[in-house]
User: What shape does this take?
Amino acid sequence: MKVMIVTSSPNLEGLTAACGNMAKAGAEAVGAEAVIVNLNRLKIGHCKACGNGWGPCRSKHECQVQDDFQSVHASMADMDAFIIITPVYWGDMSESAKAFSDRMRRCEALKEKSFLEGKPVIAVAAAGGTGNGVISTLTNLERLLMQVRANKFDLIGITQKNREYKLDTIHEATRAMVCFLL
Ligand SMILES: Cc1cc2nc3c(=O)[nH]c(=O)nc-3n(C[C@H](O)[C@H](O)[C@H](O)COP(=O)(O)O)c2cc1C
Assistant: This one.
């Protein structure tokens, strides 16, 4: 059982990283292999909206912009479950999460069988003290999951105020997601 944990913050000691570590611990507690992919450590540029709006993402389900997107995208095929964690920036996902998910959605949404088709996914929005924008961030992540036909397992909002018990929630949610697949 393989679980991909996607994080998308530049802050290696921050809340997003803490969520990723808890998800990893939760997955490993029930015997899954967990890999953390920090999008901010990779070179993943923006979608170029090739041609008249569609490039080979539509016809071949591949992105022609050559960077680290290719390897992360390809490795998704081998995964059984996913956790997507983003910091909340301006009430939305981070720039690195947006760049990756825009391109991934284009490749997967029109494919006969998406790399995420029916696979369980937990989406996490990690916010600051106000927690403003957790819901809008999760709404956008939910739409993404629907568009790639993933099996939405949970949507979790966490802030600096509730981090103590919500980190436990992420651990338990990841455990439960892996057990759901066993
Ligand atoms: C550009 C920017 C925009 C932000 N916008 C919001 C926001 O809309 N709502 C919020 O609660 N926190 C906001 N924050 C705070 C971050 O969500 C918060 O610091 C979070 O913990 C960042 O994750 P990290 O600890 O992994 O870096 C923003 C931070 C930055 C840098």
